Amino acid sequence: MRQLYHGLRQPLSRFPLLLTGILCTALIASCAVGPDYRSQQAPEDSGYTADPMPAETAAAPVALGESQHFVSTSIDAEWWKRFGSAKLDALIERALLSSPSMDAARATLEQAEQTYQAQGGATQYPQVSANTGGSRQRVNTAAFGQPGGGSKTFSLFNAGVSAGYSLDLFGGNRRMLESFAAEADYQRYQMETARLLLVTNVITTAVMQAQLATQLQINEQILLAREEQLEITGKRLALGAGSRSEVLALQTTVEQTRAAIPQLRNGLEQTQHLLAVLAGLPPATAETPSFVLTDFTLPARLPVVIPSELVRQRPDIRASEALMQAANARYGVTISKRYPQINLSADIGSQALTASTLFGAGTLVWGAAGQLAQPLFHMGLPAESRAAKAGLDVAEANYRQTVLHALQNVADTLRSLDHDASTLAARAAANSAAQSSLELVKQEYNLGAANYLEVLSAEQQMQLNALNLVEAQSRRLIDTAALYQAMGGGALFSGHANLDSGDLHTTDTN
What we know:
Elements: H1 2-12, H2 15-28, E1 69-71, H3 86-98, H4 100-123, E2 127-140, E3 151-167, H5 172-238, H6 244-278, E4 301-303, H7 307-310, H8 315-336, E5 341-352, E6 364-373, H9 380-446, H10 452-486
Helix pairs in contact: 3-5, 4-5, 5-6, 5-8, 5-10, 8-9, 9-10
């Protein structure tokens, strides 16, 4: 190795000059052609509906009928714990860990981040390779002007290091990296969107299961009451105190009620299957819990942020903006292709006729090269830039549409919360009236002023009102989960992915 050093000392003394030239040229590469991305202007509206929303919803004197207050506050990352159900918390935690949809979202994000890293490594740094080899050759000496002709056979061994680097004079590589970083951000926000959707689906399905279980129980009670009413009416008919049409009418009602029960039971079983699948389990598993409405607590405070904050909080809006930034960067890439491209390469090594003398004195070989390419007649480049600009216009339009849909989503959910609270209050009042009516009929029956059929009819009416009340109670829970989803949930990420690639980071869209 000492012999190699002495052999290389003089040629290598010229390398600092070459490296200085390369560095000076690289300093020029401080600009990037094409438009720099700028964050979109946030909506200036202060609310979501034409008429101001009330500060709180209506209240009802029943379970899950509490008044809910709209407040401007941040949202907890684990916002589902506001529903106060340990069973629900455990199921959501398992779903987030085991759901195939979340696994796919995490893998897609990893793929995007590693693609960014790969592109950065290929363009931001020189590419250095080591090589070694040997060959056996036979040459004709006459080709080299030696008299007498003949041929010689010899071995040739070589070893060396080569390096290449493309100077990013006009920022084409940086624009490309910016697009890959934005696409990684897009996948990050897509993962958060999948997480938010999964949590909301688990809550909605659990509430629907609780609703169907209660409705199934009530319908079975209604069926028993109607069968008893049919039996009494049949006996009255046998005694000549009733009519055939009355019996047939009651029989039709009994069978209609009986037909509804299998449908409710089917829906209940399907929600059980769906909960298992959402948690990443097969439908046949017995590990998923069963829910009743009393398992849930209605959150008393509902977070409502202004539209300008919403666009920075909802992951689907952030994902749409990331796509717009990627399109903007790709447009810059097409513009950079019209400008000169400079490629540098260098190699240094040793060549010898025997392996033992490969690194000896006088075996040094080296070379350095530079190439500048300026497009002169590329008819496709302007069209490529126009296509990229059209893609940017598409991304901007899709972003605006995503924002409008988000605002509509929030407005619809706020109105649903308000109206469904009023509906619950009205159905609670109707249920209370039905209970009072039943008590009154029972008193009249005990006094002989009413018959037993009237008592059964009053019980059925109360049970029908109870069905409506259960539906209204469930709707408030589902609306509340929908509002958390509409507000973007508790954001886990903000800004761009923290990718390890030196100081090459895109501008935060905030």
